[in-house]
Amino acid sequence: MSSTVERLVVIVLFDGVDLLDVTGPPEVFALLRRETDDAAGYTVVLAARTMDPVTTSAGVRILPDTTFHDVSTRSIDTLLVPGSVEVDGNRRVRALTDPTVAGWVKTLAAGTRRVTSVCVGAHILAAAGLLDGKRATTHWSTAQQLAADHPAVEVDADPIFIREGDVWTGAGISACLDLSLALVADDFGETVALRVARQLVMYLKRPSGQSQFSVPLEPVSTTRRIEDLRHHIMDNIGERLTVADLAAYAHVGERQLTRIFKAELGMTPSAYVESVRVERARSQLESTDATLERTASTCGFGTTDTLIRAFRRQLDTTPTEYRLRFRSGSGASQGGPGRRNQDALPRTD
To answer: 10 Å Cβ neighbour count for 199?
Structure first.
């Protein structure tokens, strides 16, 4: 990777924009520099119709770096479009779309390598005609509105983010971090993205799979000992990780370790290890063609039976069914002929 690589990210600004949609992605991109050995990374600029301050939905005013007109002459790598909503007296949420902003987004997208939306920013992409014939996600509260306003868009409100070629859409507001990490992984690799996720105290970077299938992000620990154990577990997930092994690593007794895990993370050490292994297996099933035997081995389950039982306990599905539904990439192998039988384990739990 050349140290001269610098990708221009343009974030669209307009009055009423959601503040975290604007500030979250630049934080992720800024941390990238800390985790790489060279100057490669992103240059982020905020663009609006004029250079006047923009008032966000939180009441915080932001100064644009440039105008839509001026940035249109530059080579844009990633156009990031945040969103805005209004809430009525019955607490019903409706996404707002400024036709002028949508027009500029369409113009800028024509010369951009990659277009992304955060949360309800998908409504602006749809208004610009950039989601027609594509599958897209948005915040669950406005998904029905997006489908009704834009019938040519295949709306799926469940995933954290969806990639359709060079167009990416993200779900809820905090999912802007997951989407940004996915962009980093696409540009610089999974290893770097994981290091950035750790700096954000996200630790496990969530794949794009559906939220109801996701193992929750780990709660933040308050002691260095537990944080060190979490990193040890992730770095050695394919190895033997019994309570005795973890207690020995932490130089505490097994009972004390269990008490610490329950107090800090709300679960036993064994349950925590299984949740991390399931998360790692989910990522492999989504992004690789590894067999169930290979996945079970590399994720520390040992056997496919153990892998299947863990998926049934935590996700109420089987590894093969999960892969068939959430395998990324069109036309990619989704388990191969006959793999469904690999999940033929009697339901005993």
So the answer is: 15
Residue 119 annotated to the active site = yes
* Buried/exposed code over 114-127 (b: 16+ C-beta within 10 A; e: otherwise): bbbbbbbbbbbbbb
Contact 136, 155 (CB under 8 A): yes
- 126 phi and psi, to 5 degrees? -65, -40
Q: In the 8-state DSSP scheme, what is residue 54?
A: E
Q: Which residue has the tokens 């507001």?
A: 173
Based on its alpha-carbon atoms, the radius of gyration of the chain, rounded to whole angstroms, reads 22
For 111-159, write each residue's pLDDT tens digit: 999 999 999 999 999 999 999 999 999 988 899 999 999 999 999 887 7
Instruction: Determine contact, residues 320/308, Cβ cutoff 8 Å.
Output: no
What was the pLDDT predicted at 88? 83
**3 state DSSP class of 80:** strand
- For the chain, the straight-line distance linking the first and the last C-alpha, in angstroms and rounded, comes to 48
- Single-letter amino acid, residue 337: P
8 Å CB contact between 98 and 14: yes
Name the strands in the sheet holding 6-12, side by side, starting at the edge strand that comes first in the sequence.
66-67, 41-48, 6-12, 76-81, 112-117, 167-170, 161-164
Signed CA dihedral, 242, 247, 253, 257: sign only = negative
Q: Is 4 exposed, middle or buried (0-12, 13-18, 19+ CB in 10 A)?
A: exposed
Catalytic residue among 12, 22, 80, 119: 119
Segment 3-50, tens digit of pLDDT: 446 799 999 999 999 998 999 999 999 888 887 765 568 999 999 999
How many Å apart are CA 320 and CA 296, to the nearest integer?
12
